[in-house]
Specification:
alpha/beta; seven-stranded mixed beta sheet; six-stranded parallel beta sheet; 18% strand; binds NADP nicotinamide-adenine-dinucleotide phosphate
């Protein structure tokens, strides 16, 4: 099992497996496809769960370049896989490769979980519902009751978070993105989900602001939960996204990054007296929901959590 955590397979390995040969063992019937994917903690989390459930299935990670996604999905299906997870950069392209989509995948415009039903491919999105569960777990609040600011709302994780907030009918949604145009596109989709076409203004439920100190200050005063969905903070040398002085004790700050466990944003927020959490709970809950789709039985959350705590 530790081999599956450490080994990153290739498309050639998957091709060989579809021909009943090669290094991917016959028990492997689940995998995450990504590019890059070697840092994924999903094999550790899912294999611990599969073992605890007494399932013979195992989960691997496979590096799949963007232009090869359709080929990889076809090979996995031919190899008799139960399903797949998709991560960077495949979540959007996968929409076009499914025969059927669940409501969330359609509304969020992204797929992170595939289920093979014979030749029929069903696409799901567990990132959005996973975020709802993560926020409830770490802060004991429901997204639908919170005024949320999403930093990086134009990225893959950020747009899913923002659109899930809209699906939850959050009372306020503030979208921030370095490239502001992307946040405006997400705002348009969010408004459709909220069934509102009101023009933007201070009292509108969806507001786009530039990544600038004065705009952040003004909006943070009317925010309960800040979600960082940018990749800024993964490196210790990364600059601050939000000036430390803008963070206040009444805020909840959720950083989707989990390596490092405490980013500079979380450190600043803790110093300000705010409640904080990193993205490990999102990884856990989206994974648990995917496992439930594949196995049609409850996921062993505690086992998965322990496996993540050990590897993260
Ligand atoms: P992505 O699609 O590449 O989006 C990256 C986002 O970060 C964009 O909004 C981008 O803004 C912004 N950004 C990058 N560099 C920046 C900078 N120097 N200043 C300001 N903004 C910057 O990546 P993603 O898949 O959404 O992932 C984003 C983060 O979420 C990553 O850290 C990832 O590890 C984390 N994540 C965690 C989980 C989990 O399970 N916890 C799941 C998914 C993602 P522009 O649009 O202007 O480029």
């Amino acid at each position: 099992m530790s081999d599956l955590q450490q080994t990153t397979f290739t498309l050639d390995d998957l091709r060989a497996r579809a021909e009943d040969r090669g290094p991917i063992a016959s028990e492997v019937g689940l995998a995450v496809l990504g590019h890059p994917v070697e840092h994924s903690l999903s094999p550790a989390m899912h294999n611990a769960a599969l073992e605890a459930l007494g399932s013979k299935l195992r989960y691997a990670k496979i590096d799949c370049p963007p232009e090869q996604l359709a080929v990889a999905i076809d090979l996995a299906r031919k190899a008799g896989f139960t399903g797949l997870n998709l991560t960077i950069p495949h979540k959007f392209e996968a929409l076009n490769l499914c025969h059927e989509l669940d409501d969330t995948a359609r509304q969020l415009g992204a797929v992170n979980t595939l289920l093979f039903d014979g030749s029929h491919i069903v696409g799901f999105n567990t990132d959005g519902p996973g975020l709802v569960r993560a926020i409830r777990e770490v802060f004991a609040f429901d997204l639908r009751d919170l005024r949320v600011m999403v930093l990086g709302a134009g990225g893959g994780a950020g747009s899913a978070a923002a659109l899930q907030c809209a699906l939850e009918k959050c009372p306020r949604l503030v979208l921030v993105n370095r490239t502001e145009g992307k946040a405006h596109d997400v705002a348009t989709q969010a408004k459709k989900l909220l069934h509102t076409d009101r023009l933007e203004g201070p009292d509108d439920p969806v507001t786009v602001i530039p990544l600038e100190e004065s705009a952040l200050r003004e909006q943070l005063a009317r925010t309960d939960l800040v979600i960082n969905a940018t990749s800024l903070g993964m490196k210790r040398t990364d600059p601050r996204l939000v000036p430390a002085a803008l963070l206040t004790p009444d805020l909840m700050v959720y950083d989707m990054i989990y390596r490092p466990a405490v980013t500079r944003l979380l450190e600043d927020a803790q110093n300000a007296g705010a409640r904080t959490a990193n993205g490990l709970s999102l990884l856990l809950h989206q994974g648990a929901l995917s496992l439930e789709i594949w196995l049609n039985r409850p996921a062993p959350l505690d086992v998965m959590r322990r496996a993540l705590d050990k590897t993260a």
